[in-house]
Amino acid sequence: MKVTFLGTSGSLPTKKRGQPAIHLQYKDESMLWDCGEGTQRQLKHTDISPFKINSAYITHLHADHLIGLAGLIQSLQFLDRKEKLEIYGPKGIDRYVEFFKNWDHFNLEFEIDTIEIRKGRIKEREDYEVEAFPVKHSTPSYGFIFKEKPSINLNKEKLKELDLLNHPKCSELKEKGEIEHKGNKIKLEDVKEPEKEGRKVVYSGDTKPCKELERAAENSDLLIVDSTFGEDHKEKSIEYGHGEAKGMAEIAKKANVGKLVLTHFSNRYKDERELEKEAREVFEESYAAEDFMEIEI
Amino acid sequence: MKVTFLGTSGSLPTKKRGQPAIHLQYKDESMLWDCGEGTQRQLKHTDISPFKINSAYITHLHADHLIGLAGLIQSLQFLDRKEKLEIYGPKGIDRYVEFFKNWDHFNLEFEIDTIEIRKGRIKEREDYEVEAFPVKHSTPSYGFIFKEKPSINLNKEKLKELDLLNHPKCSELKEKGEIEHKGNKIKLEDVKEPEKEGRKVVYSGDTKPCKELERAAENSDLLIVDSTFGEDHKEKSIEYGHGEAKGMAEIAKKANVGKLVLTHFSNRYKDERELEKEAREVFEESYAAEDFMEIEI
After folding, report:
1. Which residue, of A21, A235, B112, B125, has the greatest Cβ tally within 10 A?
2. C-alpha to C-alpha distance for B242 and B205, rounded to whole angstroms
3. Which among A269, A270, A272 has a CA at the least distance from the CA of A261?
4. Is B64 annotated as catalytic?
5. Radius of gyration of chain B (CA)
6. Torsion-angle region of residue A210: left (phi > 0), alpha (psi -120 to 50) or beta?
7. Weakest mean pLDDT among A17-31, A33-47, A205-219, A226-240
8. SS3 of A39, please?
9. Coil, strand, or helix at residue B220?
10. What is the pLDDT of residues A87-127, one digit of tens each?
11. Are A155 and A189 in contact (CB under 8 A)?
């Protein structure tokens, strides 16, 4: 599983930072979390094919998290995409997508499914799910949790004993929890390995530190947070509903997070390592994001 | 007068080329010609302040020439702009701008004047005018002519003789064409220098070579053209309504142009100097545009 930062600026892009966008690759699933202006061009600096993106999850409807969708959609059409694209976002996302779907000049021929989200599970597959949780910003906003489902692995020694190693009935056993084999009743719980927790990645979107984020972040491998401000603008961060490095680090610590990545920096900071330093005073595994930074999980 | 290329790709941006946008600075007038996705970020690589842009002229409603307007408008609002922004474009531009003006999340407080254009003069000031001319693309499209008005300069020796050097009545003379001074009737034509032609810059927008462009380009100091293709795709260029380097160079030659700049390159060309070379076989003063290239006129 790989997370790639495509844009790490706040509302205003800078020379070295594009507007917010994060890419997650999990097996064949290629998804965007937010899609600021210029995301399609940022992709050109990576080995991610825009063509293979299946879904885009938008945290809220502020332009800097959203505007890149239009250009991406248009370019996918130019490239003659056929597969469906799923777009998730708060109430109103449909109006945005519909505007461009109906823009005469787009001539869209592939399907776009727009899903207006609420709190809770918004996507489920056999091997993972995505959950949305409400956060505290200046407009209705969500964070996202990517959660891999625990994988069921069978103990090879025990399978050998039962003459079941590599046997087609193993799938049935995983599915049904019990099978009959050579006259014996075999229960899943007797042959399976201890369950391994799936990987978990959490993204705050734009928000000030809040309980909802703390709950969502619990035991995540990677927590990506709004760190628009540092301690020098702590009050402003609360007023505007934005993150502040140290406050976010406190959440990461409480929530027993593996790694904290700060992003969405205000352009007032010339060196974002300062914010990283503030966070590390509280939580050592804190990192300031850079455009095109990659994290393997 | 300075022309800066902000984006020189075709429909799909590349690593080194942003989507179409050109900036013209003429005295205090700071204008954009087209505004592809990412234009606001391209500006960060120049000394042009987005804050001082007075107007944007959009050649046609294809997304790659238009999408950057939304982000630019949002950022101007963040920067607390107060001055009006003028946006010119073909029928339909108003629907695009209105959508974003009314997008709840924009909270626009400055005025935007959207002007749906037709062929002919679309902007006039004392010292320059902008004219739109129809071109041949796959959707209603215009090219633009920036034309400085001829300047009236008075002959200093003659003014001295008439005791008028630096006299306030000089403005009246320029305006009315005739004044009375110390009992003499003085006519403008008797004291003015030979008229100096104003500077002329022409931009084709997206088009195949056509008569309208040839007429518009006549005697221009700078002609900027769609050069999506080279000779290897001459037929495709005609089919898609796009420029082809050599065909455009022929227009430049016929129209007695000062300098020809090719832009809007298809990403199939790895080295656009090849297209420049093709154009130079016909018209020596041909140049392939690069992002951030500046031309003083």
Report:
1. A21
2. 9
3. A272
4. yes
5. 21
6. beta
7. A226-240
8. helix
9. coil
10. 999 999 999 999 988 886 788 899 999 999 999 999 999 89
11. no
Q: Name every residue in B having a CB less than 8 A away from some CB of A.
A: 11-15, 18-19, 37-38, 40-41, 44-45, 61-64, 67-68, 70-71, 74-75, 78-79, 92, 96, 99, 103-106, 139
Place of tokens 């505004």: B35
Q: Other C-beta atoms within 10 Å of A38: how many?
A: 30
DSSP B47: S
Q: Which of B212, B249, B210, B211 is nearest to B227 (CA)?
A: B249
Task: For residues B217 and B224, give the distance between their C-alpha atoms in angstroms, rounded to a whole number.
Answer: 9
Q: Give me the helices (H) in B105-240, please.
A: 156-161, 169-176, 188-191, 211-217, 234-240
CA distance B227 to B216: 17
How large is the C-alpha radius of gyration of chain A? 22
Residues of A in contact with B64 (CB under 8 A): 71, 74
ipTM of the complex: 0.89
Condensed to tens digits (0 to 9), the pLDDT of residues A63-90 reads 999 999 999 999 999 889 999 999 999 9
Query: In this structure, what token pair is assigned to residue A195?
Result: 């369950």
Q: Are strands A286-288 and A200-203 parallel, antiparallel or unpaired?
A: unpaired
Look up tokens 């790694």; give the residue: A259
Q: How far apart are CA A166 and CA B267, in angstroms?
A: 50
B18 interaction partners in chain A (CB closer than 8 Å): 41
The whole-angstrom separation of Cα B231 and Cα B249 is 12
Q: What is the pLDDT at residue A171?
A: 87
Contact yes or no for B188/B169 (Cβ under 8 A): no
Average pLDDT over residues B93-122: 91
State the pTM of this model.
Answer: 0.91
DSSP three-state, residue A13: coil
Q: How many whole angstroms separate alpha carbon A227 and alpha carbon A237?
A: 9
Per-residue model confidence as pLDDT tens digits over B237-261: 888 999 999 999 999 999 999 999 9
Chain A residues touching residue B67 (CB < 8 angstroms): 37, 67, 70-71, 74
A132 has pLDDT over 80: yes
Q: Which candidate, A238, A213, A235, A223, places its Cα nearest to that of A279? A: A223
Q: State whether B64 and A71 contact (CB < 8 Å).
A: yes
Closest to B65 measured CA to CA, from B228, B212, B295: B228
Helix (H, G, I), strand (E, B) or coil at A287: strand
Cβ–Cβ gap B74/A63 under 8 Å:
yes
pLDDT (tens digit per residue) in A14-68: 999 999 999 999 999 999 999 999 999 999 999 999 999 999 999 999 999 999 9
Q: How far apart are CA A41 and CA A71, in angstroms?
A: 9
Domain B2-151+195-296 architecture: 4-Layer Sandwich (3.60)
Identify all chain B residues contacting A106, using CB atoms and an 8 Å cutoff: 63
Q: Would the CB atoms of B61 and A106 count as touching at under 8 Å?
A: no
